[in-house]
Amino acid sequence: MSTVQATSATAVQDLAKNLIKSFDANSDGQLGQDEFGSFLSQLMNGIQTASGTMTASTQTAATGLQTLSRGALRRDLFEGFNFDREQNVEKSAKDAFASLASAAGAVPATKAEAENWFNQNVKQGMESLGHKVDWVKGDKFQFSNWQGSFVVDFVRGADGPNPSFTWLADQAGASLT
């Protein structure tokens, strides 16, 4: 239980540091009234309650635009994802993957491309959200978080005519017969 709290606290602290870096116009390590106002304005511009869409993005030096909720998701790239519920990228590795994969904008067409694509577009973001990536091989990866360790096949139809993102997860080390 304490590991979960530490991971969540670390993720929140990392997010806070990135937000301060993004909005700290005078680089004094603090957000003044105008800088905080800028942050709130950008946050509120991302919330569109009438349409039910919520987005909150932060520009970070290391990872670029990081989508933290369902507003920017490209639903057409995915199979087997429920985007009609609240997306929680810190608790759900599947939600984190969907957010990061959607931001990348395209599905890799082959297993070889999938491995490189994942390492370039998803791995760092997953880890910053508390989902440690243990390995990546082709269109599969293993991650560990507060729920355990899982192996995920993330591209349906890799090396075929119409690939899409999917989430076929099995407990790591499970024997499938």
TrEMBL record:
SUPFAM superfamilies: EF-hand. Residues 11-46 form the EF-hand domain. It comes from the Bacteria. GO terms for molecular function: calcium ion binding. This is EF-hand domain-containing protein. The lineage of its organism: Bacteria, Pseudomonadati, Acidobacteriota, Vicinamibacteria, Vicinamibacterales.
